[in-house]
Amino acid sequence: AGSGPAAAQAREQPVLEPVLPAPAEEQNGTDSAKAPKVNCEERNTTGIERFTLQILNVSQDLMEFLNPNSSDCTLVLFYTPWCRFSASLAPHFNSLPRAFPTLRFLALDASQHSSLSTRFGTVAVPNILLFQGAKPMARFNHTDRTLETLKDFIFNQTGIEARSDVAVTEEDWEGPLPSVLTKGIDWLLLFSVLFLAGFVMYATVRTDSIRWLIPGQEHEHQE
């Protein structure tokens, strides 16, 4: 150790070397992690007393309820009334409009809107899509379909926080989305089975007919 101006400068050198940009980078990383992936325009809730989801019937088209020129967000559920997973999800999805009153929530029977299911790649139900305007932006892919996981999904995508006083109630188990399985016929599956059986029968008969029409095949069969 020495003394004088040079020694003093050497001793002070380590003190003058903190990496100042680090806190700023960490803060920026936190802000980017919390930044919403979908910038939703929250609707005006003035005058709305009851927040509930709307179930589309067979004659209603989903695209009529989605405004392509708007930035508002809509959560759409594809379900079937005889799917037990859809039934178990129902009370949790019924409570979402109260948790997020500034967003819209729709549900439709995928078996009655097969063209929409094909258009948006719905190969299994329940299937939940987040739309901004008329454009699908995100798909809920978790197998744990509860109110809390749905809240986290919406918050992570939009940055909109859910109301903390909302929970699943007995009214949510009653509707509007049914939580009780409905016995029904899967007409798509039935049609597919009948079509496959008819095709196999046609191919079998057609093959036998062609075989008997080929010269020499009958003689070879007799031998």
Distance between the termini: 114 Å
| CATH level 3 topology of the domain at 54-174 | Glutaredoxin
| Overall body shape | elongated
> How many strand segments?
5
Strand order, main sheet: write it out. Answer: 1-3-2-4-5
CATH architecture of the domain at 54-174: 3-Layer(aba) Sandwich
The poorly predicted ranges are 8-32
Strand content: 5-15%
N to C succession of SSEs:
HHEEHEHEEHHHH
Task: Tell me the CATH superfamily of the domain at 54-174.
Answer: Glutaredoxin
Q: What is the share of helical residues?
A: 40-55%
Structural Rg: 30 Å
- Individual helix count: 8
Structural class of the helix and strand makeup?
A: alpha/beta
Q: Report the sheet with the most strands, covering strand number, pairing sense and barrel closure.
A: 5 strands, mixed
Average pLDDT, rounded to a whole number, is 79
CATH class of the domain at 54-174: Alpha Beta
Description of the structure:
- By secondary structure, the protein is of the alpha/beta class.
- The protein has a domain at 54-174: Glutaredoxin, CATH 3.40.30.
- It is built from eight helices and five strands; from the N terminus they run ααββαβαββαααα.
- It has helices spanning 5-12, 21-34, 84-99, 114-119, 147-158, 170-174, 187-213, 217-222, and strands spanning 54-56, 73-79, 104-109, 127-132, 135-140.
- Strand 4 (127-132) and strand 5 form a beta hairpin.
- It is elongated.
- This is TXD15 protein.
- It comes from Urocynchramus pylzowi.
- Residues 1-34 are annotated as: Disordered.
